[in-house]
Design goal:
Length: 281
């Protein structure tokens, strides 16, 4: 199965790593919306071996993404395809130490192998890169690590809540987020917030837990929302049931992935940093 090809400019296809890297940098610049800054500092390194990309390295250190993106269109749908040449990205690496997402520094290290694609040439004289989904006969392997500071995450959540609730006349005056490790695949969450709307001020608490079992099924439960203020508690009562019913659920992470992508392990380490790591095999 294939997906929409990404335009890489005039045919023929790149035959050197430097040419491919330059075209990918140009594609990223055209695809990025105004909320993305720092792409000029991103590094792209590529090595070609015939139709295959032997190695492709992306370093997004210093790139920043805003809360909302309005990216320009980069669609390329040639009226007819004159040639299609299969290839494989044998090794893809992604690093960012860090990149910034909505003011939150995020440290990322990821590697993947066995990514299939096709070089596509159109009758319009353009060439594109068409990703091909993996399958059981052509699996993808790899691993990823994403880390954020606990203090930075709390500050970002506080800012996002303040902005989202401001339109409703609600002010968040204080916020505390506690994450407690309950094992390598389990975590408990508690949020304490103070809110104000007009003359009404109250504390609100929310708790939840999440865990992943050996079958890679994510269970989200123990969701509770409460307030010691009876007026606020009454208002919360209108939505509490819907929130708790929606949140107390199980998600089969392995089943959500396409054929050829198998989640072998996932881990969450909680300390001064929150570190999420995953392995495909």
């Amino acid at each position: 199965m294939t997906s929409q090809p990404l335009p890489l400019g005039p045919a023929p296809r790149p035959t050197t790593g430097a040419d491919l890297a330059a075209r990918l940098r140009d594609l990223a610049a055209r695809a990025a919306g105004p909320g993305v800054v720092g792409l000029d500092r991103a590094a792209v390194d590529a090595e070609l071996d015939g139709a295959d990309v032997a190695a492709l390295g992306l370093d997004l250190t210093g790139v920043a993404f805003g809360a909302t993106q309005q990216a320009p269109g980069i669609d390329w749908s040639p009226a007819s395809v004159t040639s299609r040449e299969p290839g494989t990205v044998r090794r893809l690496t992604l690093d960012a130490h860090p990149l910034t997402a909505v003011d939150l520094p995020v440290d990322v290290t990821a590697e993947a192998a066995g990514l299939r694609f096709a070089w596509v040439e159109g009758a319009d004289g353009q060439v594109g890169f068409e990703p091909v989904e993996p399958d059981d006969a052509h699996p993808v392997t790899g691993h990823a690590r994403v880390a954020v500071s606990r203090a930075g995450l709390v500050a970002t959540v506080h800012g996002l809540l303040a902005v989202s609730l401001q339109s409703q006349g609600i002010t968040v005056s204080d916020l505390d987020v506690q994450l407690d490790s309950r094992g390598p695949r389990a975590v408990g969450l508690r949020i304490e917030a103070k809110i104000r709307k007009g003359f009404l001020s109250a504390a609100v608490s929310a708790t939840a837990s999440a865990s992943v079992d050996d079958a890679m099924v994510l269970a989200v439960g123990d969701v509770r929302i409460s307030s010691g203020n009876p007026l606020v508690a009454a208002m919360l009562g209108a939505v509490r049931g819907r929130v708790e019913d929606a949140a107390n659920r199980r998600i089969d992470l392995a089943a959500a992935l396409p054929p050829g992508v198998r989640l072998v392990d996932v881990r969450l380490d909680v300390g001064d940093e929150l570190v999420l790591s995953a392995r495909l095999g």
